Amino acid sequence: MDPVAHSPTPSRVRIAASSNGDGKNALAACDSKQENKVENAYENQADAIDNKAENMESMADNLSGNAEAAAENAADTLENKAEATREAGEKAADAAEKKADH
After folding, report:
1. Is 16 a domain residue?
2. What is the pTM of this model?
3. Does residue 21 sit within a domain?
4. How many distinct structural domains can be found in the chain?
5. Residue range 57-86, pLDDT digits in tens
6. DSSP output for 42-82
7. In terms of residue numbers, what domain contains 89?
8. Residues in CB range of 99: below 8 A, 6 or more apart
């Protein structure tokens, strides 16, 4: 997914792109280096959590019954944590942008 330079919310483009695995390639031109650095740090953390969730889902495929359900619940929890990390990164990046603008 390519960034939309004229978008009023270019960071939203990064969020959509990151869900497709293109987050690091979708940096909007109007973002400061510090904003990108902050957001990339959070994005890297979220990617690592997503990888754990994928591993947990793979493990669940080899289980049954309550163990399978527990592994799937753990994977869901990790996916939610990854999303929360991305949202926190967006807020931190916005704060970095505001600080850079002043």
Report:
1. no
2. 0.67
3. no
4. 1
5. 999 999 999 999 999 999 999 999 999 999
6. HHHHHHHHHHHHHHHHHHHHT--HHHHHHHHHHHHHHHHHH
7. 32-101
8. 34
Which of 24-33, 39-48, 85-94 has the lowest average pLDDT? 24-33
Neighbours of 13 (CB within 10 A): 20
Residue 17: pLDDT band (50, 70, 90) is: low
Angle CA 39–40–46, to nearest 5:
90
Let me know: does 97 contact 32? Beta carbons within 8 Å.
yes
Residue count of the chain: 102
Whether the Cβ atoms of residue 57 and residue 70 lie closer than 8 Å to each other = no
CA distances 19 to 27, 59, 68, 82, 98, Å, are 14, 22, 25, 11, 25
Residue 62 lies in a domain: yes
Q: Give phi and psi for 43, each to the nearest 5.
A: -60, -40
The answer to whether residue 25 is domain-embedded is no
